[in-house]
Write a structure and sequence with these properties.
- The structure is a single chain.
- This protein is mostly helical.
- Helix content is about 65%, strand content about 0%.
- It contains 3 helices and no strands.
- The longest helix is centred in the middle third of the chain and has 15 residues.
Length: about 60
């Protein structure tokens, strides 16, 4: 992750923190999507990693 050999760990962390910030606010559609996702999680409508892998593998195997 270092850009140059003498870059310190603190420099890398600061750079990553600064680039990770998004100044643009979330759209109403994005917020609704997040809220729906949270409701799905609370209601137990989710897949484990293994379930997702199995389902995706089945789709890939049929193509």
């Amino acid at each position: 992750m270092k850009r140059y050999p003498r870059e310190t760990f603190d420099d890398v962390i600061r750079r990553l923190m600064n680039t990770a910030e998004d100044e643009e606010p979330l759209s109403a559609e994005a917020i609704r999507g997040i809220e729906e996702s949270l409701e799905d999680i609370k209601a137990g409508r989710l897949y484990t990693l293994e379930e997702a892998r199995t389902e995706l593998q089945a789709v890939w195997d049929t193509q």
